[in-house]
Amino acid sequence: MSNNVTNPLLNELHSMKRKMDALYLQSFSADDAASPAETPDSPDWQPAIDIWQTPAEWILVADLPGVADSELHVHLVDSKLTIQGHREAAPCRDGAEPFQRERPNGSFTRTFMLTQDIQEDSISAEFKRGVLTVVIPKITAQSGPPHRIAVHSA
Predict the structure, then answer these.
(1) Per-residue pLDDT tens for 98-114?
(2) Which residue in 76, 46, 39, 75 sits closest to 63, CA to CA?
(3) Average pLDDT, the chain
(4) What is the pLDDT of residue 125?
(5) Cβ-contact 122, 137 below 8 angstroms
(6) DSSP alpha helix (H) spans, 2-134
């Protein structure tokens, strides 16, 4: 197949792509009315989160590039794990105006209802290079509350 587009199907696909690109750019025009996501009562964006499960634990992995450590909060209340934070808009050069913006900024909140078979006091979280990993250990048949064994001196 040659580099020039002579195939009618490819011509149609290119035409559709140009139309979709125009619609996409139009949807981000500066004179659009505020969307519901811009209201103070709702989050500005939702980070992508993967949830993994092993026999021993649940693992949540969230992509949070650009979120400062001080702007990230993880807490557990009434079996609800909540991840909250804020990401500032990326700075651009003086005098530059946005042409296309795809990276959301502002506040976010994600809440997950946890099952009752978890060890709440053993949940750990690590934030490294823009990725948050939360590990939630499960209560298994082999594990239970630690039993303290008294050690006697002779």
Answers:
(1) 788 888 889 999 999 99
(2) 46
(3) 79
(4) 95
(5) yes
(6) 8-27
Give the range among 68-77, 95-104, 140-149 with minimum mean pLDDT.
140-149
Query: 3-state class of 96 per DSSP?
Result: coil
Q: What residue segments make up the domains of the chain, in order of their start? A: 39-90+103-137
Q: Which residue has the tokens 């002579």?
A: 6
Is the pTM here over 0.70, yes or no?
Answer: no
Nearest-angstrom CA–CA distance, 70 and 43: 18
Residue 129 DSSP label: T
Sign of CA pseudo-dihedral 28, 34, 35, 39: positive
Report helix, strand or coil for 39: coil
CATH class of 39-90+103-137: mainly beta
- Per-residue burial over 37-70, b = 16 or more CB atoms within 10 Å of its CB, e = otherwise: eeeeeebbeebeeeeeeeeebbebebebeebeee
Q: Which long-range contacts (CB under 8 A, 24 or more apart) does 36-44 make?
A: 43/106, 43/107, 43/108, 43/109, 44/104, 44/105, 44/106, 44/107, 44/108
Tell me the mean pLDDT in the region 24-40: 44
The pair of structure tokens assigned to 18 is 């140009």
